[in-house]
Each structure stands twice: as structure tokens, then as C-alpha cells.
Design brief:
265 residues; Rossmann fold; five-stranded mixed β-sheet; two-stranded antiparallel ribbon; globular
Length: 265
């Protein structure tokens, strides 16, 4: 009987130890170090999404912890070499979706993290593939009365900087503007209304989906992925359909298997 009690105590301790593991993820939006040159002084899309994902991580019950963007900027700005390295790395990812694994490894060392999440956000049109900032496009389209089908694109990739591998990635795209391809803001109130829609899109669609899928990469059996469907067909700016389970459900044997917990834990 005493042996059985000891085994139960040991087993309980081992389970608690596994559940207490916390992974640190450094979140780097592509616009982290860029000056806010837009007329409205609004955050860029990559920063808005990054803040929402960081909030989700830090509200995950200790599963994932991530420093906020103010702390990250502050630390990077104190080290000129680190600032140059980070700026070049983010510019390369934003421009070409290219991942500099060696640079990310060096950056992560400064934050004692083993994983980094890169986020880029930009607007494209059917006229060309040039990537432009959301607020830059809004200013230009307002000033020149241009009418193009605009799309907001958001790319996210999670990198394991120990093994130099991509753990997870996804791309989100949604139409912005009216059904008549009008995307403009002739005053601050109209621009702020667009900002509210962008924040809703980030919080309810992109960040929610990304953070839960990323948690699955570390804790494969903790919850289900979110099934997200973004509807670009009609309904005007930033309309979307979403299916969010009321409560995360445990995986069964018939569910898709996402692999073992990384780092041999």
C-alpha cells in the first residue's frame, strides 16, 4: 500500500512538472523598428497583430510567455549592432519572405528565447505585386481617388532557432474597401473606423487562429485548432465568417496528430 501511495505521488509530481513547462517566444513584427510616417500615426498591421498574439500567449495559463513590444524595442535600441541586425532581418522577411536563421539565432540569444515569431502585414492590388503599408495605401487612394481591389495580406511564421526549422506558418488575406473598390478616409473619424475594423480582424481572426495553432505546436493535445474561413466575396470591407468552438476539446485517437512536444519535453 505504501509503495502504491509513493508511486501515485511520483506520478502526480511528474505530470505537474510537465504542465509547468513554459515556452518563451519572441514576437517580431516586420514594422517593429520602422518610424510611423503615416498621416494618422496608427500602428502598422504587423504591430497590431503582434500585440494581439502576445496578449494571447501571456493569457495562455503559463504555456507560452512573450515580452511585449515596448520591452523588445527598448532592448534592441540599446544595442546598435542588435538593432542593425534585427532591422535587416525584418526587412528581408517583409520584402521577400526570406528567413535568416543565423540572424534570428543571434537575436533570440539576447532575449533567452528558443523560438521566434515573424509577422508581416501589407496591402497588394490586382495591378501589381508591390507590397505597401496599409495606411500608405489609404492616404494615396484618398488623395488621388484611386479605385482598385485592395487586399490586406498577413504572413506569420514560427521558427525554432535551436534546430533552424519552421515549426508553423500561415498566410491570411482579406479584401479591404467597399464593394465598389473604394478605400479612402477623408477625415480622421473615417480613418479611425477603418482602424477599428483592422483591430477586429486581427483580434478575432488572425491572432486567435495563429496563437491557438502555435500553442498546439508546443502542446499538441491541449486543444483543437480554430477553423477560420475569411469571406472575400461580398459584404464590403473586412467581412468574414468564423467558426470558433465554445470550449477547447481534448483530442481523441481519431483526431489529426500534431507530433510530440518539441525540445524532448
Amino acid at each position: 500500500m505504501k509503495i502504491l501511495i509513493r508511486l501515485i505521488i511520483i506520478f502526480t509530481f511528474l505530470i505537474s512538472s510537465v504542465q509547468a513547462v513554459t515556452f518563451d517566444v519572441l514576437v517580431l513584427p516586420a514594422d517593429l523598428l520602422n518610424e510611423k510616417e503615416n498621416y494618422y500615426g496608427f500602428d502598422e498591421v504587423s504591430e497590431i497583430v503582434a500585440n494581439d498574439i502576445i496578449n494571447d500567449f501571456n493569457s495562455s495559463g503559463g504555456k507560452i510567455q512573450s515580452p511585449n513590444l515596448f520591452e523588445v524595442r527598448q532592448k534592441i535600441n540599446q544595442n546598435q549592432n542588435l538593432k542593425t541586425l534585427t532591422a535587416n532581418t525584418l526587412k528581408k522577411y517583409n520584402r521577400d519572405n526570406a528567413v535568416d536563421y543565423q540572424a534570428l539565432k543571434e537575436i533570440n540569444k539576447e532575449f533567452s528565447c528558443n523560438s521566434v515569431l515573424l509577422i508581416s502585414g501589407y496591402v497588394t492590388t490586382n495591378k501589381n505585386s508591390l507590397k505597401r503599408g496599409l495606411w500608405e495605401v489609404l492616404e494615396v487612394s484618398t488623395a488621388f481617388n484611386t479605385e482598385y481591389p485592395y487586399k490586406l495580406e498577413t504572413s506569420i511564421v514560427l521558427i525554432d532557432t535551436i534546430n533552424d526549422i519552421v515549426m508553423w506558418s500561415n498566410h491570411y488575406s482579406t479584401k479591404i474597401g467597399s464593394n465598389d473598390n473604394i478605400f479612402e478616409a477623408k477625415n480622421y473619424a473615417q480613418a479611425n473606423e477603418i482602424l477599428s475594423k483592422i483591430r477586429l480582424y486581427s483580434e478575432k481572426i488572425v491572432a486567435k487562429s495563429a496563437s491557438q495553432n502555435i500553442i498546439l505546436r508546443f502542446y499538441p493535445k491541449s486543444l483543437r485548432t480554430l477553423d477560420k474561413k475569411i469571406d472575400n466575396s461580398d459584404g464590403g470591407a473586412l467581412k468574414f465568417d468564423r467558426t470558433i468552438p465554445q470550449q477547447p476539446k481534448e483530442h481523441t485517437q481519431d483526431d489529426e496528430f500534431f507530433g510530440d512536444m518539441i525540445y524532448d519535453i
